[in-house]
Specification:
This protein is α/β, with parallel strands linked by helices. It has a single domain, classed as Ribonuclease Z/Hydroxyacylglutathione hydrolase-like (Metallo-beta-lactamase, Chain A, 4-Layer Sandwich), CATH 3.60.15. The chain contains nine helices and 18 strands. A hairpin with a 4-residue loop joins strand 9 and strand 10. Helix 7 packs antiparallel against helix 8.
Amino acid sequence: MCSMLVILSSCMSEETTYIEDSSFADICKNLPVEANRKLTLSDASSDWFQVYEAYEGIYSIVESYQFQMSISHLILGEKRALLFDTGMGILPIKPIVERITNLPITVLNSHTHFDHVGGNAEFAEILAIDSLYTKSNMQGFKHEEIAGDVASDAFCGEAPIGLNINTYHTRSWSANGYVSDGQEIDLGGRLLEVMHVPGHTPDAVALVDRENGLLFTGDTYYDDNLWLFSPETNLDDYTNTIDRLVKIEDKIKYLFGAHTSARVDAGKLAQVKASLAKLRSGNISPVKKIDGRQIYQIDGVNFVTSKFALEGKQGDTSKGASGL
């Protein structure tokens, strides 16, 4: 995902900068974003990671000072904890997790784009979807693939101390278990249901805490413009996924996305469904086109997609992610 609070001139381009105008700089002046401002900031926070107590037993770890604004959610049970995504890997996330809890940690990624698996190598127990796409991404992302994410204009101010912007990459990792649709993960006093929700990527998953009415959506939904541009994105799958999630949304209180806002009220998925139908109708024109991306603003929901995706096409999903 490239943060949709800003309009980007290029993602992963070696020749152009990330930020087309000064909007990200303006965002930096007004952090935290409104939704996070309403939450309690935890003492586990650091200069790089802002940790919010987003719900009882839910700690949302936000990397606010880089334009992706990636969020990893630590979900506590009585016996174990699950870390849903591990962020950018710009700085180690495990020390932050250990400030919050001494419970054993299991990692599960909402999908395996680089900005969600950056800290995976820090952990011993990792669950994943069993797919060629996922296994390819386990190799890690090389510096030249993701160097743009540590360009000077990708940060609020200077890059953090401890980051080498000339060598930044994500380390390889491996899973020691696999999950499938409908599987339940028992953390002790908290039961999480895995939903395989392909569309944004082939290996995307969501987590449902039905007892508490919580839905963790990864990049399937987050409180920002929705990124449906990558070659591995499949709009038919994404449409089916949104339809499926809307069916349970009346039983959900809060949505926890993977970028920008740690927690928002349920109801957003129904809005996405309606706007997505208009997007795919072919009757709406993009508000902007940048390097093959088409940016749409439809009834309060913004999409970044492509002619390729809108035509129902999809790239080779056996090669791993584009890194977006």
